[in-house]
Write the structure tokens for this entry.
Amino acid sequence: MNNLDTSPVWRRLAADTDVKTYRGKRAFDVAAALAMCVLFAPVALGAGALVWRQSGRPVVFKHRRIGLGGKSFKVYKFRSMVKDADARLAELLKADPEAAEEWAESHKLKNDPRVTAIGRFLRKTSLDELPQIINVLKGEMSLVGPRPVVAEELEKYGASLPYYLSCKPGLTGLWQVSGRSDVSYAERVAMDVQYAGEQSLLGDVLIALKTAKVLVSHRSAY
């Protein structure tokens, strides 16, 4: 997995699908991201200040994910965990078989002891993902698309992997408006395949509108 940026295998997998991005998607992404920068700037500054006040720097956490054609990139988030989160995770998974099983299934923990008090609020409201607007402006992500995954998760896609690799990951997507963390990984993969094959400007607009409703309800977020 270390050569994802240079290996032609992933690009070939993506190219072998019939998935085509609709014309104007990049323009829609940029316009939406710029509007969000203006709309959410005060909120983002407030969220960053809360993280700083509770646990100092870094305020923004960078984590490597896999995007279009298998190319890796660093996704931005407001830090919602303790600074030694990776070390604590390793200890937890070694000591708690149930937590290890939950992590192996979804790469998430419903009751994650590494999450700070401010972090729980940011995750519940999805404010921790606001910095990903930068990823959208850089062209690494789209406003709507599959949830960006780490390299270890690619094997969970099986034969459906080309569909994931054929799209830019999204700030939001079908998974986020269809149950989110209450959805199984297999269902999430099916949603990514569905989105890849049916993506359109109207579809992206509808998903964006549904996302606003989900964010207000705070359902299935952790």
Remarks:
- The mean pLDDT is 84.
- The first strand starts at residue 60 and ends at 66.
- The chain is about 50% helix and 10% strand.
